[in-house]
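Bump. Still looking for 5'-nucleotidase structure tokens.
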Amino acid sequence: YGEKTKEFLDKYVVLLGKAETDEDKHNISLDWSKDHELLILGTKITPDNFRTAINKSNAQLRDGCVNFINNLKLHNIPFTIVSSGIGDIIELFLHKEGVSYYNIVTNFIDFENDTVRGFKKPFVSTYNKDQIVLPVKNKPNIILIGDAIEDSKMSDSIENKEIVLKIGFCSKTIKVEKYKQYYDIVLVDDQTMDVVQEIVSPLLFNKSKKEGNL
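Sorry for the wait, here they are.
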């Protein structure tokens, strides 16, 4: 399995690098997911298998992320995750980190008696997030947070929006100028939620004040 996934990675990274449009990149990502789907089809997988993998990984949330999400929950502000990853793993990881307040739009595995039947539709890739219908309604003001240029388009499908503040996390200084074309605020090599929290905190304070909770 490991050798085959490495083979897919080498193959599709090259193809994605040559693709010119987001549509082409999405179609390549879709082919990649189909190859991976065929690879795991019929495999016996349980949540314990995922938990073991999560416990062995070095993945972690940004500093202050849990506190940020808890503040949103306290003030009844919807929090939606859009990811091209595997939802079954993401949810177990969030549970491990103590996060329970979220909506999520991502790719979930279709199981039958712990046997993989494939992936549930629709398929979410890095390159079609602007086309995915999000569970966000009647919210004119939106804060969008992403770490890829393509993430800046995630709010495109939301209807009746008025203000969208886009905050981008950029890990490579060389890409900063490019990110500035798509995001209102670009944070370079920042592994915390400090700046986002500083922006949101006054808004939550004013919301509580208007509602008479202060």
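The domain at 41-211 is CATH 3.40.50.1000 (Rossmann fold).

Edit: fixed formatting.
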